[in-house]
Amino acid sequence: MAWLGSWESFVKVVEAGSMAAAARRLDCTRAQVSKQIGELEREFGVRLFERSTRRLSLTPSGEIFLQHAQRALEAIHSTEVALRNQGEAPRGVLRVSVSITFGRLYVAPLLPLIVEKYPELSCELVLTDALVDLVEDNIDLALRLTKAPPEDAVARKLVHMKRVICGTPAYFAAHGKPETPHDLIRHRCFVMLQSDGGQVWQLSDDKGDEVRVPVASKFNFNNIDCILDAVLGGHGLGMLPTYLCGPDLARGSLLSVLDEYEPLSSVGRYLYACYTPNRVRVPKVSAFLAELEAMFNPVPPWGK
After folding, report:
1. What is this structure's pTM?
2. Where does 163-264 sit in CATH, by number?
3. pLDDT tens-digit profile of 114-128?
4. Which of 60, 116, 120, 152 lies 20 to 30 Å from 92 when distance is taken between CA atoms?
């Protein structure tokens, strides 16, 4: 497939915005990339790019070629992955993406057990609260807490991520316990910065009816660990996932309130394992999924 390198270079030029940037990604020279693009244009007899001193832009022919080139390259990659892994034991490098706090607490401790069980397998854990691109970031499997799993990926529901509203006994002794959702208005309640819900907490009663309560605090964070620390410090109330605050609830250092309501997160109730369709039967992905499901079922570790 002598043409493959030229097609890949063309797609990289479009993604990177210039031949120089594409060359850096491909670890080659700008002259090599320019030569490959020129060969493509001569082979098809059309111009793929409009060139100016400022930027490159696709011609109508280039737009058409881009769509077909991306699909063709993805199909080739899927075929290679499927053939390389067919019938094999888990091996190679498994790249997993997960949010920082959850990954540190529950996924990172799992990796030594997996590589010991499968000697030909190695793991890379990418901890980030940002949304990763499964293809561009070369991620085999991403764990995502989301209401809407990506349509272009396989999404397997793993576990219900329960949340509770909680505070310290000392805070409740000083400020009283909220008896109804609207009582939260007079309490200091921490929210996640940059969350879609803004300065509002949503709760659902046993009939499924939702209540929206405006809440406020003098200081807030974009990190769930910091919110837990602030709540433990007695500075206010938090709507926290039980995977994080469960040990403190069990010890009695935190108390939950309004337990007859379900706190709702803007990111949803469930954790999903997301991966591209070409990794459905890849042994390393299947093995990791099996370990995750064994950890979460019948009861997740924070519920024991």
Report:
1. 0.70
2. 3.40.190.290
3. 999 999 999 999 999
4. 152
